[in-house]
Structures are given as C-alpha cells and as structure tokens.
Amino acid sequence: MAPIFPLAKLAFLFVKQVARPLSSGIRRGAIRNTFFKEKICLPPARLYHWCEVRMKMYVMNITRSKESAPIPRLNEEAAIELGANLLGEGVIFGIAVAILAFEVSRQKEKDRKKEEKEAEFINGLENRINELTFANEELDTKMRELTRAVYATQHQIQVRTSYI
C-alpha cells in the first residue's frame, strides 16, 4: 500500500508538467486567432473568474446589492492566461478519463473472457460427468446381466447334478 502514494504524486506531477506546454500552446493560439480567443479561450476563464469572485464574496459574507458595483471583469491578458490553463488542464483531464475508460473496458472484457472460459470448463466437466454416469450405468447393467447369467448357469448345473 505504501508505494501507491508516491506513484499518485508522480502522476500528478506528470500531469502538471504536460499541461504547461499545452496551455502555453493554447495561449499562443489565443493571441494569434481572435475567434479562438473570443469563443473558446475567454468564456471559460470569465465564467471561472465570476464563480470564484462570487464564492469569495459568499465566504466573506459580503452581499451584493443593486447599488454595489458589479463583479469586475478580468483583463484580457489574465483571462487568456487563465483560459489557456483551464483548457490545457481540461484536455489533460479528458485524456486521463479516456485512458481510464479504456482500461476499465479492457478489464471488463478480460473478466468476461475469463468467465466464459470458466463456464466452458464447467460445462466440459458437467459433460464428462454425464458421460461417466452413463458409462457407469452401462457397466452396472452389464454386471447385472452377467450376475443373472452366472446364477442361471449355477441353477442349471444344480438341476443337472440333481438328476445324476
């Protein structure tokens, strides 16, 4: 059980290291492409910022009234940075989920094949038991026939010896 924690820590560190270049690539793409920036990168960052500010206000017990100022928007550069980080980690998370789903389905397939093999083995054993039972009954029947033949022969011998 002890080696699991270091492996989990190592996996987490690996995900963070992989997410960095991915998020910097997303950031560069958002700077170059306005459609990508406006439609893909900035909306999750703004939503995340809005939720974060709302939660902080709730935790600090600050109520928003109609007279109070609205939640300030994140400047574009910070929003691009946050959006790129969110998208990068989201992609890594999606890949991890896909790998996990693949492993689960592979394990289920492996278990299903194992169960089929066990069922086939059990069916084979049951068939063999049925064959042996049938063979035993055949031998039992032959034994009874031979016993009857022996008794009949003994009876005939006794009958013949009594006439002599």
Written description of the protein model:
The protein has 164 residues and is mainly α. The protein has helices spanning 4-32, 34-59, 76-163. Helix content is 87%, strand content 0%. The protein starts with a helix and ends with a helix. Helix 1 packs across helix 3 and helix 2 packs across helix 3. The mean pLDDT is 86.
Brief sketch in words of this structure:
With 164 residues, this protein is mostly helical. It is built from three helices and no strands.
Average pLDDT metric: 86
Specify the overall morphology.
Answer: rod-shaped
Question: Strand tally, please?
Answer: 0
The tally of helices reads: 3
Tell me the structural class: mainly alpha
Low-confidence stretches: none
Topology:
Blueprint: H1 4-32, H2 34-59, H3 76-163
Helix pairs in contact: 1-2, 1-3, 2-3
Notable traits:
164 residues; 87% helix; 3 helices; 0% strand; mainly alpha
